[in-house]
Structure formats: C-alpha cells, structure tokens
Amino acid sequence: MVPARRCPMIKVYNRKHLWATLEEAYMATAKKISPFVLIGLTCIPAWGQAGKQAPPNSVSDAPRVTTVAADAAAQPVDPKTYLIGPEDILHIEVFHDDYTTRFVNVRPDGKITLPLIGDLQAADITPERLTAQVKEALSQFENNPEVTISVAAVNSKSFSVTGKVNRSGKWSLVTPTRVYDAIVLAGGFQDFANEKNIQIVRGTQRLTFNYKDYVKGKKEAVDQNILLQNGDAVVVK
Fold first, then answer.
1. Where does a domain end: 125, 153, 181?
2. What CATH code is carried by the domain that includes residue 186?
3. Could you tell me the residue range of the domain that residue 231 belongs to?
4. What's the rounded Cα separation, in Å, for the pair 35 and 38?
5. How far apart (Å, rounded) are the C-alpha atoms in residues 134 and 130?
6. How many helices (H) does the chain have, and how many strands (E)?
7. Strands (E), 79-180
8. Same-domain pairing of 91 and 141
9. Same domain, 134 and 173
10. Has this prediction a pTM greater than 0.85?
11. Residues 162 and 224 both lie in one domain
C-alpha cells in the first residue's frame, strides 16, 4: 500500500476568532504607544503657555501722590549747622590711624569716648566743631592729625506722620522739613482723608494745616506750613 500523503495543515479562523485576534493586536499596540501619548499630552499645556505673555502689573492701587521725596534719613547732614544729639551715631576717621578710626554712639549724657583722648562732649555742637576738638586733642600724640567726623545715623531728632496717608512712619529730622514736605514723604493722602484739617501734635499744642488752601496759595495756609520740630507728629484724619 502506498502510504497516504500527508497534507499540510491549514489553520482556518472563523470570523469570531479573527476579530478576537485583531482586538488583541490592537490592545498590544495601544499598550506600547500609550506612554508616548501621555507624555505628549502632558507637554501640550506647557507649549500653549510658552506662547502667552504675562499680564501687565495692575496699577489700580497706585498711590494718589506718585512723586515722593527722598527719605530724610538718607539726606546728608550739614557739618556746619547740624547739632549732634544723644543716640546719634558718628563716624570718626583719622587718616593713617586705624586705632582711632571707628563708629561711636553719642551716649545719653551727650558724650563720646575715644582712645588716647577719653570723653568728649559731642551733643549740642556741630560735626565741624567736634572735628576741631578731636584734632586738637590728638595733636598731643601726633603731628597735624587729619580728622573727619560725619553723622552716620540721626537718631536724636525725628518726626512722624500717621493716619490716612499712604505710608505712615517715622523720619529722621536731618534738614529743615515743613508740614507739606512731611506729607510728601508719607506718599500723599489716602481716599477720604481730611485735607483741610491736618493736625500737628507738638507736646500739649495742637496746630492746624489746611492742605487744600495751601496748594491754592492762600496766605493763611502758607503760614500754617510750619517747620517741624523734634518729636512732632503730623496726623491726617
């Protein structure tokens, strides 16, 4: 007998099995590419934001007075007219003398202490006058010493501005300052401030300044724009 010829086996898929096989293939492909899709979706917001510009800063809360003078504490002290007071900080500089050059505090008794010299009265005299005294005292120890004295910080004289202003605070009274100047330093008025009846509290005194009339040039208000004294408080209601 002639052996039967073996026929190659042909795998036949029915339609139901074929669709199941394709679905498995799609799922496998999706699993491979899904991480890349997620990465792309994550980057989309960043790409979109990169093309946008930041919104401009809001100016709705800008102060009513935009021009503000320099802080009085930063103004230079006139060595010929300023009177040194307790708690002021002085810088004593002696040329080629690092031992004597230093910052010193004016004590409550109005004196300072320096090496070789000892105690010196500093309060109620000008930096120029104190420079001459220090130079004279150092002349006993060295020939023709070069001395420079400056006021590093004014702590003995100040005034304050409070109430309905844009920047309440305390300022050093370094140079002659009037009520109008103090209001400018405080950044001007807030809304609904009483600009006609500004109070200057000076000890037991209560002085008045009419800002509205002052800017109109009325004489009475111009006279009210007085020079502030140490310890004065300008109150805007």
1. 153
2. 3.10.560.10
3. 158-236
4. 5
5. 6
6. 5, 10
7. 89-94, 102-105, 111-114, 118-121, 147-153, 158-163, 169-172
8. yes
9. no
10. no
11. yes
Listed in sequence order, the DSSP H helices in 51-173 are 127-138
Which residues does 104 contact at the CB level (< 8 Å), separation at least 6?
89, 90, 92, 112, 113, 114
Q: Which residue do the tokens 């010929």 mark?
A: 80
Tally of domains in the chain: 2
Residue pLDDT tens, the chain, 237 long: 555 555 455 444 444 444 445 455 445 555 555 555 445 555 444 444 444 444 443 333 333 333 333 444 456 789 999 999 999 999 999 999 999 999 999 999 999 999 999 999 999 999 999 999 999 999 999 999 999 999 999 999 999 999 999 999 999 998 899 999 999 999 999 999 999 999 999 999 999 999 999 999 999 999 999 999 999 999 999
Closest CA to 174 of 59, 96, 81: 81
Together in a domain, 184 and 231: yes
